Amino acid sequence: FGTKCAGCDQGIPPTQVVRRAQENVYHLHCFACIICQRQLNTGDEFYLMEDNKLVCKVDYEQAKQRDKRLVAVVIALSIPNSFDVLAEGDATSKRPRTTISARQLERLKQAYKESSKPARHVREQLAQTLGLDMRVVQVWFQNRRAKEKRLKKDAGRTRWGQYFRSMKSGSREKRRDDDKTDSELDLDS
């Protein structure tokens, strides 16, 4: 009934160290490229396939190039003007997932405290010092701002919800007091 590894489908004890990719959880030894068997570490770029298998970026790019050459040969033999078909096939490729290390995350949080919307040159400098792609840093800041906005919105809902609940409970107490007053009047008459 507990958490199961997306790689081997075996149970994972709650005390065991795990790796995550989106909503999938993996044993450390299962968090590896299915092609080269290399264990993926924090900060490595990888592709999460539809069957929850992981492929490192290098192997994925090589496989994509092999497939592209094979597809190009097949298409060239059967269809004239094959370049248009190849361009459409490239649009379905998935992007690599980036895992951010604890050190990188702390540095990003520190930069966010300084400015939630840093200038381009600040993002470029961050990307260079952290060894991350510029787009990864940009998306991290966008996601962080969205999270802050969502948390503020949820906090406002909670605050108003508490206010309205207190108003309801206050009106119930008032009704009870009114009921007591009515029954006391009945006794007096």
Automatic annotation (TrEMBL):
<dbReference type="InterPro" id="IPR017970">
    <property type="entry name" value="Homeobox_CS"/>
</dbReference>
<feature type="domain" description="Homeobox">
    <location>
        <begin position="91"/>
        <end position="151"/>
    </location>
</feature>
<protein>
    <submittedName>
        <fullName>LIM/homeobox protein Lhx3</fullName>
    </submittedName>
</protein>
<dbReference type="GO" id="GO:0000981">
    <property type="term" value="F:DNA-binding transcription factor activity, RNA polymerase II-specific"/>
</dbReference>
<keyword id="KW-0677">Repeat</keyword>
<keyword id="KW-0371">Homeobox</keyword>
<dbReference type="GO" id="GO:0008270">
    <property type="term" value="F:zinc ion binding"/>
</dbReference>
<dbReference type="GO" id="GO:0005634">
    <property type="term" value="C:nucleus"/>
</dbReference>
<dbReference type="Pfam" id="PF00046">
    <property type="entry name" value="Homeodomain"/>
</dbReference>
<keyword id="KW-0862">Zinc</keyword>
<feature type="domain" description="LIM zinc-binding">
    <location>
        <begin position="3"/>
        <end position="66"/>
    </location>
</feature>
<keyword id="KW-0238">DNA-binding</keyword>
<dbReference type="Pfam" id="PF00412">
    <property type="entry name" value="LIM"/>
</dbReference>
<dbReference type="InterPro" id="IPR001781">
    <property type="entry name" value="Znf_LIM"/>
</dbReference>
<keyword id="KW-0539">Nucleus</keyword>
<dbReference type="GO" id="GO:0030182">
    <property type="term" value="P:neuron differentiation"/>
</dbReference>
<dbReference type="InterPro" id="IPR049594">
    <property type="entry name" value="Lhx3/4-like_LIM2"/>
</dbReference>
<keyword id="KW-0479">Metal-binding</keyword>
<feature type="region of interest" description="Disordered">
    <location>
        <begin position="162"/>
        <end position="189"/>
    </location>
</feature>
<dbReference type="InterPro" id="IPR009057">
    <property type="entry name" value="Homeodomain-like_sf"/>
</dbReference>
<dbReference type="GO" id="GO:0000977">
    <property type="term" value="F:RNA polymerase II transcription regulatory region sequence-specific DNA binding"/>
</dbReference>
<feature type="compositionally biased region" description="Basic and acidic residues">
    <location>
        <begin position="170"/>
        <end position="183"/>
    </location>
</feature>
<dbReference type="InterPro" id="IPR001356">
    <property type="entry name" value="HD"/>
</dbReference>
<feature type="DNA-binding region" description="Homeobox">
    <location>
        <begin position="93"/>
        <end position="152"/>
    </location>
</feature>
<dbReference type="InterPro" id="IPR000047">
    <property type="entry name" value="HTH_motif"/>
</dbReference>
<dbReference type="InterPro" id="IPR050453">
    <property type="entry name" value="LIM_Homeobox_TF"/>
</dbReference>
<keyword id="KW-0440">LIM domain</keyword>
